[in-house]
Structures are given as structure tokens and as C-alpha cells.
Design brief:
Length: 180
């Protein structure tokens, strides 16, 4: 059985999930793939140490700090391939972005393959169950397009802006954000 709690953030209502020891989920309100692959029932529980640590981390993050994730035990549920992608997402520095293609190259190298499909990587990034902390919002299209965020592109822009990402070469043509 999993436990859950909520956190009200500047980007909306967040749902946190735990197996009792580790954080296994952090989803934005109306997030695509919300609680995907979580078959068991959840119970409300605000008192778990992992929830307290996560809420403190989120408080610091949303106040503009760059908190370390080492204080939160993370255990996202997913295939070995997805775990590899999520582990590499952690390596994207705060305030920087990486393209899906660059991420695919790194994964291919780690797996000892000549290449890796950017689409396969994008699927794994999109199914990241621990949003914000595993920073999938830092991944962009090869042309700088702000695309593919399960929490919504407006939220992606808010998170990148909070991290003071240089938005000069990033854009969302259908949403009024264009290249400068």
C-alpha cells in the first residue's frame, strides 16, 4: 500500500506518493500519466519523514534555491531503460537544458550502443513519475523548442524561468513564446 500527501506549489497542486520509505511519485495537477503503473490503493498520510523531506526540498526549490536531492530517498517505479533515463536526468545541472538527442547519445554510450532513438528517450522522459525533483522539464527539442512536458508547457516555462534558464534560444511557437 502506498501513502500520499499533497503540496501546494507556485505551479499548482502537487501529489506526492511513497512506499513508506522512499518517494515514488510527485505529480503536477492534471499531469499526463498521473500515477501510471501504480496499481495499489493509496492512503492519505502527511507524517512520513520522506514527505517532510520532500516538502522542505520543494520549499527551498520554489524560493529559488538549488537544494540537493540527497536528502530524499527516491525510488521511481519503471523499467530498466526508464531508470537509466531518469538517472541521467538527474545529471542535467540546475538552470541548464539538454536536448532529447543529447540525452539519447548519453544513454546510448552508457548502454554501449551506437545510437538510441530520441523518441524512445522522450517516452521515458514523459513517464517520469517524480516531476521537478527528477528534472524532466530541463529537456528540450533539438531546435530549442519547449516540447513534451507531461505537466504542461506553461508549467515547464515557469520551472525553467525559476531556474533562470537562458530562454534566448528556446521557444513555443504555438503558445506565443518565440525566439528572440
Amino acid at each position: 500500500m502506498y501513502s500520499q500527501t499533497t503540496y501546494n506549489s507556485p505551479v499548482g497542486h502537487l501529489t506526492l506518493a511513497s512506499d513508506g520509505e522512499s518517494l515514488i511519485g510527485l505529480w503536477l495537477e492534471n499531469q499526463k500519466y498521473f500515477a501510471d503503473n501504480f496499481p495499489e490503493e493509496w492512503v492519505a498520510n502527511d507524517c512520513l519523514p520522506v514527505f517532510e523531506a520532500t516538502k522542505k526540498w520543494l520549499d527551498r526549490y520554489f524560493s529559488g534555491e538549488q537544494p540537493s536531492v540527497t536528502s530524499i530517498p527516491l525510488a521511481p517505479i519503471g523499467s530498466e531503460f526508464r531508470q537509466t533515463v531518469w538517472r541521467l536526468l538527474h545529471k542535467i545541472p540546475y538552470g541548464q537544458v539538454m536536448t532529447y538527442g543529447e540525452l539519447a547519445e548519453k544513454i546510448a554510450a552508457e548502454m554501449g550502443r551506437a545510437s538510441m532513438s530520441s523518441q524512445a528517450v522522450g517516452g521515458a522522459v514523459g513517464h517520469n513519475p517524480i516531476s521537478i525533483i527528477i528534472p524532466c522539464h530541463r529537456v528540450v527539442g533539438s531546435d530549442g523548442s519547449l516540447t513534451g512536458y507531461a505537466g504542461g508547457l506553461t508549467t515547464k516555462v515557469k520551472l525553467l524561468t525559476l531556474e533562470a534558464v537562458d530562454m534566448t534560444n528556446l521557444y513555443m511557437p504555438k503558445h506565443g513564446i518565440s525566439r528572440n
